[in-house]
Specification:
It is a single chain. By secondary structure, the chain is α/β, with parallel strands linked by helices. It is built from nine helices and 13 strands. The strands form three sheets. It has a seven-stranded mixed beta sheet, sandwiched between helices. α4 (111-120) crosses α5 and α7 (183-191) packs parallel to α8 (210-216).
């Protein structure tokens, strides 16, 4: 679709303008979010109308006018064309999700990573998702393993409400518990020592919450630790990601099982996930990771 968009715009924009069009956009349900260079903003409606005419599943187009920011990781959006609404339904791996693109964080580009982690969940696991958003990881894990229990935490009240709605929409409300609150406080007050697996899908701040993640674990468990790494290439980003994960868990008995690049998020910036095995009890000794 990105190349198709450039081809379609070639008849109405100059070759220089076409070269400035971003090569990708996000489609969440029937809402398309595009980034438009400043000098092309006067032609935003024209670009949006072309998208609506050729992307048959699209009914709304917004322009992203700020980066993802703040504790809720939301971005400022400007309505451009179609139906003026921010709520849509998104489908992924057989699940349905209600998403508010203006009030909650959501990225369709994490689909592969969500499936990877869901496939790792074992029978009878208890999982703490520390930064759950609208519940995409949580609901998918519960759909794929009917014996697990997921505590799905988010400080954004809208996200927590949508997570609860999405659990019901996918008939996993008996296994997904949506909790509105600060993840560190919720774990300390309610969930310490309960988890077999902890998710930390907040790469901007995950390092601040490592102690809380380990506190949530039983005597042993796995933490999926997400971070952003600045590097010249993927291989280097993995090496730096491994070092970062070791540093983050240095005071704990841990082994980094694997480090993988989830996606590129900017020029020479990569989102990395490290799967870290932690044993918290002296009764289960491991050699400290090197």
């Amino acid at each position: 679709m990105p190349h198709m968009l450039k081809n379609m715009l070639s008849n109405i924009l100059s070759s220089d303008e076409v070269s400035q069009v971003y090569s990708a956009f996000d489609q969440i349900g029937d809402i398309v979010i595009i980034k438009i260079p400043d000098n092309l903003m006067p032609k935003k409606k024209l670009i949006a109308d072309i998208i609506l005419a050729h992307v048959k599943t699209a009914k709304v187009v917004f322009a992203q006018v700020s980066p993802v920011k703040g504790d809720y990781r939301v971005r400022n959006l400007e309505f451009v064309a179609g139906e003026n609404r921010t709520v849509t339904e998104y489908k992924e791996h057989g699940c349905r999700f209600r998403v508010d693109v203006a009030k909650t964080y959501f990225s369709p580009r994490l689909s592969t990573e969500r499936l990877r982690i869901a496939n790792m969940v074992g029978e009878g696991e208890t999982i703490v998702n520390m930064f759950a958003g609208v519940g995409t990881y949580s609901v998918l894990m519960a759909r794929m393993n009917k014996t697990c229990k997921v505590y799905s935490i988010d400080s954004n009240a809208v996200a927590a409400e949508l997570c609860e709605a999405n659990a019901k929409l996918n008939k996993v409300q008996d296994r997904v518990v949506s909790i509105h609150g600060d993840a560190g406080k919720v774990i300390k007050d309610e969930l310490a020592g309960q988890a077999d697996r902890v998710l930390m899908p907040l790469p901007e701040r995950a390092k601040e919450f490592v102690d809380s993640a380990v506190l949530a674990l039983k005597k042993k468990g796995v933490v999926h630790y997400f971070i952003h790494i600045r590097a010249d290439n993927k291989k280097t980003s993995q090496e730096l990601g491994l070092q970062d994960a070791h540093n983050a868990f240095v005071k704990y008995n841990h082994v980094v099982q694997q480090v993988r690049v989830v996606r590129g998020v900017g020029p020479r910036i990569y989102q990395i996930v490290a799967d870290v095995s932690v044993k918290t009890s002296p009764a289960f000794p491991l050699p400290l990771a090197q």
